[in-house]
């Protein structure tokens, strides 16, 4: 569409974690690579829906003919950062048949009795799907580190296990897209207050969020360490400034589009003779 | 929105199967209860998205506070009738977090070794979810009857088993919405030809669809019988004329809206003292 303001620089470049990354240098209010306004962002989000839908359909179509490709979007963030909004506003444009969504809650007793990747492995997306994890195996190196539920040695073991796990995903055809939505502590305070102001949002309010908020610095340190330890060439982290929800949405949409484009998808070729089939249908 | 043409009569009334129902009396080209055009239908579909989304969020919210309510939309149809389009155009407006989609393919050897409801039971929607079955346990009384894979006695046993199964779903808080999308044989022929005309649709073409097409009358008889035998007050069938895709979409959207309204959903009340929490957040 003419007049839509696009990114100057692709978020897969600007938001990708590289050497010497420091989370504290990322300004949650910034909009890297994008010079448009909130309204421009809204238009861009809508404008890209058709492309996203077509790429998703191609991905699905390939899998019907033996294709092994798939996407796994991993969303991590402090509470209220907008994971749900990403799913609702970015993923909702996609065909629900091709989206495999999983929210990881606190593990059950059964899940705790296994290695931390046991419950994750069962939810990896099928071929042709766009999988979305709302929280993930990263909780086991974030909240576990913050509260000391695992020793420093165990956390280190988990970093290595995560790298190997994600390597295996890549080897089996999965494009792993890791996103941390980054808000400021001040922004979180405002969003928590806003939930109290609106009775229709009261169900989203949880005292537990406030308890975790008290560990903000520890969480930032845990994120810094996890991001450093698990950013690999095939499965890099992207830190998305998220104080502006509209920016986070278009940025994650672009990351998804980029990941789908990297898969070089093609419509499957007919394995049948078109004139023969046409004749059969006409005679049916 | 002003100017949007709405249904004169709700599809839950006009399309609901009652005593003396005869599938052969339903005209697949008709648009019962709706006097608008294709363009009017498109506008209506878009206009109802927000209401659908809000009801879905309420359903989800209730479940976070112990609510047991949920929806199960069962879609059955001849090939090319537009099940996929319903999912893409009606369900896609919903938050993917609250949609539980399952397409049932030909059963695996493991699935065949159990009772036919074994694999179905595992996919019933969780509390708070809108479940969608693309094909279902009805295949076991449709294609199985048409090809004689089950004896008449066994088909009869399955009708009873389905009634009991769906009663249990209702008793545990599920609103079951059963939809047959009804197209004509002529319309199917045109849609199959259209798939051949567009190389981007070749992947959807399947010679097997043509083989089943040869059994059209047997399928219509199997549908008539299944619909008669399993339409119950709590889980009635709806036969949706589907030669006009736009009509089928707004009709199913209305059936979903009606089902959600029948659940009398409410936003959960705060179980905390709002001023106390506000003070805690401000001090954090």
SSE topology string of chain A: HHHEHEHHEHHEHHHEHH
Distance between the termini of chain A: 43 Å
**Helical amount of chain A:** 40-55%
Shape category of chain A: globular
Number of domains of chain A: 1
Report the strand count of chain A. 5
Number of helices of chain A: 13
Any idea what the CATH architecture of chain A is? 3-Layer(aba) Sandwich
Computed over alpha carbons, the radius of gyration of chain A is 21 Å
Q: How are the strands of the largest sheet of chain A arranged?
A: 2-3-1-4-5
Largest sheet properties of chain A? 5 strands, parallel
Unreliable stretches of chain A (pLDDT < 50, length at least 5) are none
What does this 3D model show about the protein?
Two copies of one chain form a homodimer. Chain A has 284 residues and is an alpha/beta fold. The first copy, chain A, has one domain: P-loop containing nucleotide triphosphate hydrolases (Rossmann fold, 3-Layer(aba) Sandwich), CATH 3.40.50.300. Chain A has 13 helices and five strands. The first copy, chain A, has a five-stranded parallel sheet with strand order 2-3-1-4-5, sandwiched between helices. The interface between A and B is large, with 44 and 44 residues. Chains A, B: It holds the Pfam family PPK2. Chains A, B: Residues 18-40 are annotated as: Disordered. Chains A, B: InterPro entries: P-loop_NTPase, Polyphosphate_phosphotransfera, PPK2-rel_1, PPK2-related. Chains A, B: Keywords: Kinase, Transferase.
């Amino acid at each position: 569409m003419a007049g839509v303001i696009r990114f100057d620089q692709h978020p897969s470049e600007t938001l990708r974690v590289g050497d010497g990354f420091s989370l504290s240098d990322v300004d949650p209010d910034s909009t890297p690579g994008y010079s448009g306004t909130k309204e421009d962002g809204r238009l861009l989000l809508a404008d890209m829906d058709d492309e996203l839908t077509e790429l998703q359909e191609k991905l699905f179509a390939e899998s019907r003919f033996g294709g092994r490709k798939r996407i796994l979007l991993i969303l991590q963030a402090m509470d209220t950062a907008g994971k749900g909004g990403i799913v609702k506003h970015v993923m909702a444009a996609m065909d629900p048949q091709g989206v495999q969504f999983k929210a990881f809650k606190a593990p059950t007793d059964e899940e705790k009795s296994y290695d931390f990747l046991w419950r994750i492995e069962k939810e990896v997306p099928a071929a042709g799907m766009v999988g979305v994890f709302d929280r993930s195996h990263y909780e086991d190196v974030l909240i576990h580190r913050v509260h000391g539920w695992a020793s420093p040695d165990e956390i280190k073991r988990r970093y290595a296990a995560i790298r190997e796990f994600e390597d295996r995903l890549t080897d089996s055809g999965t494009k792993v897209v890791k996103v941390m939505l980054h808000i400021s502590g001040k922004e979180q305070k405002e969003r928590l207050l806003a939930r109290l102001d609106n009775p229709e949002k009261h169900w989203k309010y949880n005292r537990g969020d406030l308890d975790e908020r008290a560990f903000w610095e520890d969480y930032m340190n845990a994120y810094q360490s996890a991001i450093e330890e698990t950013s690999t060439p095939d499965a890099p982290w992207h830190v998305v400034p998220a104080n502006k929800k509209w920016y986070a949405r278009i940025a994650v949409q672009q990351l998804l589009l980029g990941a789908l484009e990297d898969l070089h998808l093609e419509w499957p070729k007919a394995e049948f003779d078109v004139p023969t089939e046409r004749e059969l249908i006409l005679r049916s």
